[in-house]
Amino acid sequence: MYAVTHFSPVRVLLVDDHAVVRQGIKMFLGTSDAVEVVGEARNGQEGLDLVEKLAPHVVLMDLLMPVMDGVTAIRELKRRFPDVEVIALTSVLEDKKVVDAVQAGATGYLLKDTDSDALEEAIQAAARGEVRLHPEAAKRLAREVRTPEMREALTPRETEILRLVARGRANKEIARDLAIEERTVKTHVTHVLSKLGLASRTQAAIFAFKEGLVGLD
User: Fold this and answer.
1) Class of the 147-210 domain?
2) Sorting pLDDT into bands at 50, 70 and 90, what band is 97?
3) Measured between alpha carbons, how far is 27 from 16 in angstroms, rounded to an integer?
4) Which of 47, 62, 72, 212 has its CA 20 to 30 A from that of 184?
5) Residue 101: which of 145, 143, 150 has the closest Cα?
6) What residues contact 217, with CB distance under 8 A and at least 6 apart?
7) In the chain, ranges of CATH 3.40.50.2300 domains
8) Are 204 and 164 in contact (CB under 8 A)?
9) Spatial separation of the C-alpha atoms in residues 201 and 203, rounded to whole Å
10) What is the torsional sign of CA 172, 178, 182, 187?
11) pLDDT of residue 1
12) Which of residues 75 and 128 earns the better pLDDT score?
């Protein structure tokens, strides 16, 4: 995850094969001081090349594209640039696409008709490593994704932190809400992922949805 200071905008790369869509997103985000669109690409391969050149904090990734599709691009991007966060921004809400995108490493999954304020908020959240899922995408993930049984029982504090992670809260926010050190939250999150046998906060959120620890609406 890239460090984003209070005074520096989140650097965003747009990857979509439709110029009209890219232009619309740029227009939506162009009035924001908190987000800066640093580049745009027509397919996943171009996107990967620009990530290396432009070092964005967040990539908005379409899924259905020529040359290299979004899921393949997300998987390769996270392998090569693990600190770059990805939001799948697509018009497709198919179970397989949702699951594939998240399992490939997407932090968020939103639809292209998401309003500009919500999109900007999701971008800022992604830059902090927070989970942002369209409610219907979260439901489909909870239904389709198999999560392992816990390797070890969570403590009450770990369960509380898992709920907050699933609600998209960043470590700093959790620390403030629980009146504990941010590094303590980070340690708890690490323990939660280890006990659940999971690799990411997004997967932990899905587990929380499936176990009924948080609501899906």
Assistant:
1) mainly alpha
2) confident
3) 15
4) 212
5) 145
6) 135
7) 10-143
8) no
9) 5
10) negative
11) 46
12) 75
Q: Are the CB atoms for 54 and 77 separated by under 8 Å?
A: no
Q: What is the rounded distance in angstroms from the CA atom of residue 171 to the CA atom of residue 129? A: 9
Q: Where in the chain is the domain with CATH 1.10.10.10?
A: 147-210
- Right CATH for 10-143 from 1.20.1070.10, 3.90.550.10, 3.30.750.24, 3.40.50.2300: 3.40.50.2300
Query: Is residue 5 very low, low, confident or very high in pLDDT (cuts 50, 70, 90)?
Result: very low
Beta strands in the chain (DSSP E): 10-15, 35-41, 58-61, 85-90, 108-111, 132-133
Residue located via tokens 């816990």 = 150
At 144, the pLDDT band (50, 70, 90 cuts) reads low
- Evaluate the CA torsion angle 105, 2, 116, 48 in order and state its sign: negative
Residues in the chain: 217
Helix (H, G, I), strand (E, B) or coil at 90: strand
Q: Are 163 and 214 in contact (CB under 8 A)?
A: yes
- pLDDT at residue 193 in the model: 87
pTM metric for this prediction: 0.71
pLDDT digits (tens, 9 = 90+) for 52-70: 999 999 999 999 999 999 9
